[in-house]
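For reproducibility, we list the full input for the beta-D-glucopyranuronic acid complex.
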Amino acid sequence: MLKSLGWMMALWVACATPARAEDGYDLWLRYRPLPAAQADAVASKATTVVRDEDDETIRLAAAELERGLSGLTGRRIAGGDLGEGAIVIGTARSARIAALRLPLAGLGPEGYLVRSVTVEGRPVTVIAADRPVGVLYGAFRLLRIAQAGQSLDRLAIVERPRLALRVLNHWDNPDRYVERGYAGQSLWDWQKLPGFSDPRYTDYARANASVGINGAVLNNVNASPDMLTPAFLTKVERLATIFRPWGIRVYLSAKFSAPIEIGGLKTADPLDPAVAAWWRAKADEIYARIPDFGGFLVKANSEGQPGPGDYGRSHAEGANMLAAALKPHGGVVMWRAFVYAHDKPEDRAKQAYSEFQPLDGKFADNVIVQVKNGPIDFQPREPFHPLFGAMPRTPLMMEVQITKEYLGFATHLAYLGPMWEEVLRSDTYRPRRGMTVAKVLAQSRLSGMAGVANVGTDRNWSGSQFDQANWYAFGRMAWNPDDRASDIARDWAAMTWGPAVADPVAAMMLQSRQAVVDYMMPLGLHHLFATGHHYGPGPWVDDLARPDWNPVYYHKADRAGIGFDRTRSGSDAVGQYAPALAKRWGDPATVPEDLLLWFHHVPWERRMASGRTLWEELVARYDRGVAEVAAMQGQWAALRGRVDEQRHDEVSQFLTIQRAEAQWWRDACIAYFAEVSGRALPAGVVPPTHPLAWYKAVRTPYAPGNGR
Ligand code: BDP
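The corresponding predicted structure, in tokenized form, follows.
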């Protein structure tokens, strides 16, 4: 009696005080008590967790269910015997599961099913899979349903991932500096590894597993060759051991010149037999330590990195040589298509396609070419990359940037789900209508999606509470590229802030990316960023060493008009798309206004759909962006008291920063474009707070994340 009174008290306290302190460390796996009626409903379907298989991953799945369901229901749910409301988990190696004769083999290596069934006359829930990791994924799925306050009745879920490689790319250096990182230092404490296993490594792996991420490239694409030395491999091995039971493989970024730098060879020419032998031996050495090592990620002949081009060899020759070294062990090469050469006058947006498309079909079968979502570089809005659909005989994986280098770092609230959805749902028209980017990715024999990670040592992992949503959404979309950004937002919001506020939180998130586009670079403008760190506006910058590093290269604004002419009369980048798209996007009358200035240089007087001139529309979009941030502030203020105070307060302060920076972007860009166009501000528009010279003089040399 006393005991149950204690539980009731605990429950009452937990329910009555949503304002209890939280710092965000628990991510979307908080498992705070549900409202009483929902908690009762879940508890009736989760009396105990039954497993009769002794496998580490299945043990983790059981422990997660017990932890999660206990937290959500406020009751102690533990392992036990089969009874009404039990959750029975396992693979066909479990006698109980085998007896059910479920179609497990068809689920593939990572799929699962979650089903309400009757076992030995008792209604139970089964989480079953062909392999243990599927059981783990299924456990997280059941918890997601419970966290959203949804019913665990009559479950009939069958799931398998649509893409095979769902990997985070960490741009982390050996000294723990994170390139384009806004969440503290690298999680990998190389100095203390392998001796010290920070519990955070396990928490990281658990969070990834909860959204189906199954790989981590541990180091920066601008790679240090030292990562491949035995001293570092011992440390990598330790991390791999910690991640393995969570279904996560480790990969490394490989520097192409490593045979010279750490191997003592005179060349890194991929066709030199000594070079190939060096990489084979290196692969053997790695696999002796890490039998399930995933493979190499390579940035070659891009932004000063070495590559096969240094020896007159093609990307395929370089990639295939590495692939041959990994092949006996089952590893893959993820070869990046992010290339543009400083000595080429060709439009930067065209260069990856020009270089890679002719290599279609020339890559070894364990090479996958990693293509950024758009042709330039993770801008707030880009059309999809023209290589998608254009290399039918080559597996392509899509790379997105979870870390917000170009969308306001950690302080701006920008949910990236809609941006990725926009790309994944784009129709490539190759070979025919309906072939979306998602389909192109999923049809490859090797398939995948990579996300440049946004995690670091900050307590809240991502630098802000809302940036956790981007990590979460990446995992969900890599698992199922047809998943909807709005559904994912609602799930994340329910899990992270509570089911009662899921709708208003998701509503804020869904408008947030367009807000950033509006106050930074609307109507297809791109790369207006300040130099190097990319913090803040710099549309006037025109003095950098390479023309295609200068914002003026991208917007080409002058007295007559603005925009990059990528039509046939211009750079003809539009010609790299399927004819149906080239036609639509190549005509200013039919291109979506959101991409107008990406593809066209148009006069300031041009009439827009709104009836305004282009100049008026541009200014209106900048104003709209700032207004959208103000609206988010209002929406968030309305949630005070409905979520815990500590996180609420942090988000409020960040929104205040975002509002000020949105204003800064708007003012600086309007001041600049007014000057180059020689135009007065449209009637009624509030003038920028300062003269243009003031914005041009802003310097922020210590802005975080800059490459070095
Ligand atoms: C750019 C980043 C740079 C990266 C590069 C890449 O500014 O730090 O090294 O992409 O993807 O967006 O290689």
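The chain has three domains: 24-159, 165-483, 518-564+601-696. The CA atoms of residues 281 and 325 lie 8 Å apart. Both points were considered when choosing residues for closer inspection.
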